[in-house]
Amino acid sequence: MSGDGPLLHSMLTPALALILWTLVMCVWLYAVRIPAISKAGIDPAKAQEPTSLDALPLKVRQVAYNYNHLMEQPTLFYALVFYTYLAGQQNPANLILAWAYVALRVVHSLVQATVNLVMLRFSIFAVSTLVLAVLAVRDAMALV
Fold first, then answer.
1. Span 73-116, pLDDT tens digits
2. Cβ(74)–Cβ(18) under 8 Å?
3. Cα gap 20→88, rounded to integer Å
4. Cα–Cα dist 86/80, whole Å
């Protein structure tokens, strides 16, 4: 399998990359959450409300918060990537924007799940939102 195949140049590949990253964060989430639940003496059967896990250390909750964030705005990214692909707007500029969005979301995850500097995290989020908006506007402009 060649490293420079057609999927490397596909708008769909950044979507796959973000899906894979989300799964990495899911594994990370449970790798830290399960031991923390056990250590805190929380009965999983009684943890029906998210607030029941508030007793977990912030370092553990940060990973969960990030996993949840990967279920929010990236849904727009997935829809936009598929639209871009199906509308025939797959081009180098849009591909760069898609990969930039993925890279920014990975960096956002790493910041939130580790040092959690809020202003840095917000700045990364803001730039990723701008990248997403530029991609959407480029698709909209292609309609004209």
1. 999 999 999 999 999 999 999 999 999 999 999 999 999 999 99
2. yes
3. 24
4. 10
Q: Any residues with CB less than 8 A from the CB of 2 and at least 6 apart, and which?
A: none
- pTM for this predicted structure: 0.92
Residues 6+ apart with CB under 8 A from 117: 111
Q: Report yes or no: 85 and 34 within 8 Å, Cβ to Cβ.
A: no
Classify residue 121 by burial, with Cβ atoms within 10 Å: 0-12, 13-18, 19+.
buried
Select from 1.20.120.550, 3.30.365.10, 3.40.50.2020, 3.20.170.30 the CATH code of 6-141. 1.20.120.550
Q: How many CB atoms sit inside 10 A of residue 63's CB?
A: 22
Domain ranges of the chain: 6-141
Handedness of CA 39, 40, 46, 49 (dihedral sign): negative
